[in-house]
Amino acid sequence: MDTKRSLIKIGDVLKKYKYACIVLLAGILLMLLPVGGKTTQPQEKIPQEKEAVSIEDRLVDILGQIRGAGRVRVMLTVASGEETIYQSDQNQTTDGNGSTSQKDTVTVTDKDRGQSGLIMQVNPPKYQGALVVCQGADDAAVRLAIAEAVSGLTGLGMDKITIAKMK
Fold it and tell me: Which of 12, 39, 80, 114 has its CA 20 to 30 A from that of 123?
């Protein structure tokens, strides 16, 4: 008899809260479904023509377009590579004994829950010097045009650029 009464009470509670029970069961069902049903496909290799071209190769292409330059080869020496500066928060507290400062890098969480620093600025590489070897280096106008182009593209002063004739 006791079991029968408890079943009747459970039935009454279910009738009263049927919508809440349906929502609860739907939530449990959704939680049991697999998450992130993404399939990983192997990435196709990017053709070599579309890969990033170095600054030297780009300089060779553009300097070769200067009238009278002829064939061109370029070599750059790098003083420091590309520098990434991350966003940071700085907290300074002052008490009776002095002040303390705390600096924390701001992090961002991506969709895969991986964390990385929030990039504030990316500084390009700094160059130490440049050597340009070309066929038309015996003409002063060509040397000047090449030196100005290299200076404008790399930020080097004219005294850091050497232009020589190709054999």
Answer: 114
Residue 120's nearest CA partner among 97, 163, 89, 153 is: 89
CB atoms within 10 A of CB 104: 9
Q: Measuring CA to CA, how many Å separate 33 from each of 26, 30, 103, 111?
A: 11, 5, 42, 18
- The pLDDT averaged over each successive group of 10 residues in the chain (167 residues) is 79 83 84 62 40 74 91 88 79 78 76 77 85 92 93 91 91
Question: What span, in angstroms and rounded, lies between the C-alpha atoms of 75 and 156?
Answer: 13
Tokens 């060779």 found at: 60
* Residue in this structure with the two tokens 């590309």, named with its chain if needed: 82
Q: What is the pTM of this model?
A: 0.52
- Nearest in space to 124 (alpha carbons), one of 160, 154, 157: 154
